[in-house]
Structure formats: structure tokens, C-alpha cells
Amino acid sequence: MPIKGLSDTFRLPRAGIIRLGTRKKTDKPCPADCKKDKKCRLCLGTGFFQRPKEEEFFVCPDIVKETYGEQPKELVIMFPVENELILFPQWYKMYGRDTLLCRGDGIEGTYWDFDKGDFMKRECPCPFLEKKKCKGVGVLQFLLPEIKEAVG
């Protein structure tokens, strides 16, 4: 008998991340005072603030580049299930330096309470959304059938 609640949520395995752009280094020093910590999400360890830069191609892991080339503009994808909650999960999310601190669905959120050292429930949206410390995030999940390692 399986453990109750452990396998109730189906998730697709993740072999890598395909991005729509890169990050471009600016002349502005990192506002996080991270001392060039490689885990800093604002400067990626360079000490300078990084801005998103949209590209004309998909930014892919090496395993995808081996099949589609260095700068692919099209990918053959497959959706293995019809459930949109699995294919395109969407949440309000707030991150710390490198950690998810809060995740909500617009009605209820779960956040890390530093004082209690545990996750707690709260109303969503909360004041962090108004302060733009939290934002809506969606991740499209799919399989790449032309890449053996990506389909299992």
C-alpha cells in the first residue's frame, strides 16, 4: 500500500530548462550586497546587476543543442497529458536570494515564517504582490520526442 498523499500529485520529470532569453550584465553594482555570491539571483555572482534580454532563439541545455543546433528557433514538442494544471502550473511566487519563500494561488498562500522556522498559511494575494516582491509565474512543461533522454 503506498504512502497516503505522497504520490497523489503527478509531476513531469524535468531534464532541463529552455528559456526565452538570457541575462545581460549592466554597469550597476548588485543592489543585494552579495559580495559576488554565485547564488545571487540579481547578479549571478558577477557583482553587477543583470537585466533580462529576450533572444530570437531558445536558450537550451547542451542535450537539446546536440539535436537542434546552437540557436534553435523551433522545437518539436509533445504534451504527454491533457491536464493543463500539470502542463502549465501557475502560481504567485516570491523568492529570497535563492529560495522560494512564498507560493500562492490567488486565494491561499504558503510562506516561510522565519520566526517559527516552518511554512505557514496566509491569504493570497498579500501585501507583497502590491509591493511587487511577488509575481505570477507560469512554467510550460512538455516533452521533446526527438531527444531520447528527455522522454525517458
Automatic annotation (TrEMBL):
This is Uncharacterized protein. It comes from marine sediment metagenome.
